[in-house]
Design a protein that fits this description.
Residues 237-246 have a biased composition (Basic and acidic residues). The protein is mostly helical and 277 residues long. 57% of the residues lie in helices and 0% in strands. It binds zinc ion.
Length: 277
């Protein structure tokens, strides 16, 4: 079942998808699958939801270099493992897929919160001074990779004239822009990153250019241990709260797709529970 389903999902064209989906329905036309097919059609294959996962849709968007993601592959591995060890009842397949989507969504939210609050030390480079906490660490990592690949310049890896194609396809600063910033001893700017890589909408960043987007509010009086003390206690509950609030804010502002997934998944779980009763 999973194989037929993923073949359909991976279809590069709409026509191919439609015919594979018909094949899927033919293969599972017995009455016991009726509810499952209905669920997939009503919840996942509507015009507004199918574009989040059917390949012929997702391929039409700029991919920003994420053609194959290990995240998807590891989810797929987990799915296969879980399915092999179960009897693969239809409802279980769907519940499993849902729980994986949900877990990935939560993980993405946490990563986002982490990026804005605690950028790892390797991004404390002059190049990132103005963009850290505003641009994803994934994007900064790409900049580091580009830099390490070309610099120091070598005869076997010459830096050719700038065609702008790297920046156009990836939405990231190319080696020429990186070189320029290094030469001028300055940070890369937000304008060198596509909206895709920003952690908050550009309009909001531009409204507060001087301030990093999210930092805990300044404390009036620092009591007890000095800043930077090595034996810091674990995170304060205050920090947790702001992270939580931030996540909520994300859900409210930008994460419609994810919220939709969560909503559907909750609904499915409750219908699964009913079925068991
Ligand atoms: Zn260039």
């Amino acid at each position: 079942m999973l194989q037929l389903w993923s073949q359909a999902v991976q279809s590069p064209t709409k026509t191919l998808f439609e015919s594979r989906w018909r094949a899927f329905k033919r293969a599972y036309r017995q009455p016991m699958y009726k509810d499952l097919l209905q669920y997939i059609e009503e919840e996942w294959l509507q015009e507004d939801t199918r574009k989040f996962f059917l390949a012929y849709y997702t391929n039409t968007y700029p991919h920003f270099g994420q053609i194959s993601t290990s995240r998807v592959e590891s989810a797929h591995r987990r799915l296969k493992k879980d399915l092999e060890s179960s009897q693969s009842e239809p409802i279980r397949v769907v519940t499993l897929i849902n729980s994986i989507i949900e877990a990935q969504y939560t993980k993405a939210q946490h990563q986002h919160a982490d990026n804005t609050l605690r950028p790892p030390p390797r991004y404390r480079h002059l190049l990132f001074k103005d963009i850290v906490t505003k641009v994803s660490t994934y994007a900064m990592q790409k900049v580091i990779e580009t830099m390490n690949f070309y610099l120091p310049e070598r005869l076997d890896k010459p830096i050719k004239r700038c065609t702008g194609s790297y920046k156009r396809s990836l939405g990231l600063p190319c080696i020429h822009q990186i070189q320029e910033a290094l030469h001028d001893n300055r940070s890369l700017g937000l304008e060198e990153f596509h909206d895709q890589w920003l952690l908050v909408p550009r309009s909001r960043l531009l409204a507060h250019p001087q301030r990093p987007y999210i930092y805990p509010p300044p404390k009036k009086q620092q009591k007890g241990r000095p800043r930077g003390a090595l034996n810091q206690p674990k995170k304060s509950t205050k920090q947790d709260l702001s992270e939580f609030e931030h996540t909520n804010q994300l859900v409210e502002n930008g994460g419609e797709a994810g919220v939709e997934v969560l909503r559907r998944s909750k609904r499915l779980q409750s219908s699964a529970a009913q079925r068991k009763e």
